[in-house]
């Protein structure tokens, strides 16, 4: 599965007596206080899931550099505003404002092409991405921000997470999100430019016949990386020698990556975290087997690393793959690896 578009968390600014506001919220709602001690304010906001709401609490008369207290709740901002009005709690709250909810759009390639395509369809104006965008009025429009990163992870309003320009569109949030979502892959493909989607086949070879576990591990990893769509899988035959068929489990994927980048990930997945090779994952594209010598080098792989033995290079690729996954995904994959290793014959039994 490839997620191309997602919503940011809704945000609500609440000002007055900061201490009284926090106490009132804790008494009336299930709220969690987020600390920004170990990370920046932007990173704190980025860690909030889209299903939760962010409450930014501050004193009414503070300088602009004073960061608000950040609380998070499963309650929608409308429910909080409703309670404030119904309980006549306006003596606690002197200023309330809803902030524009962000739409994040994933791009692989030229994000400006995607931005222009969306702007041609919906209008809007471009703004430089910065932390100041968080505090713009809801009347400023819906900000559509672009990133090359997976949308599973938190995205902060900073360089490295988002591209430098955002598009503000004057349209109700839910209507805009629905219309963008309907055309998400059209815009995504526009960013690919001259690149094509590629159909590739991964052949799984395991002398110990733990195909179910290996295929599950591979599928979970590909889904976690969000770079391909599985379009088919099943048993096939390969021939080690003429007239000597060998059973092989095949997984066919559709991906926007080139074969070298896919082979790079597969090479890392052939090894366990201790450097033991326990499966062969061959990649075929256009009926040609892709060699590990065809993996992209240059800026992607330092020369010192490319000159090391295959195992060391594969372990570097494995680290890349595992780093790109969520902790929950890594733990599940590691559990599958342990299950596979437990089924391997002991050396004394060989």
What class do helices, strands and sheet pairing give? Answer: alpha+beta
What is the chain-wise order of helices and strands? EEHEHEEHEEHEEEHHEHEEHEEHHH
Q: Which strand order does the major sheet show?
A: 1-7-9-10-8
Summed over residues and divided by their number, the pLDDT gives a mean of 87
Shape: elongated
Oligomerization state of this entry? single chain
Rg? 25 Å
The termini sit apart by: 41 Å
**Helical run tally:** 11
Helix fraction by DSSP (H/I, runs of at least 4): 25-40%
Beta-strand percent range: 25-35%
Largest sheet properties = 5 strands, mixed
What is the number of strand segments?
Answer: 15
Contiguous runs where pLDDT drops below 50 for at least 5 residues = none
Structural account:
This protein has 350 residues and is of the alpha+beta class. It has helices spanning 18-28, 41-46, 77-86, 111-122, 173-182, 184-192, 211-225, 259-269, 303-306, 310-324, 327-342, and strands at 5-7, 11-16, 31-34, 53-59, 69-73, 93-99, 103-106, 125-128, 142-147, 165-169, 198-205, 228-241, 244-255, 280-285, 288-289. The protein has a five-stranded mixed sheet, with helices on one face. A five-stranded mixed sheet has the order 3-5-4-2-6, covered by helices on one side. Strands 12-13-11-14-15 form a five-stranded antiparallel sheet, with helices on one face. Strand 12 (228-241) and strand 13 form a beta hairpin. Helix 7 (211-225) runs antiparallel to helix 11.
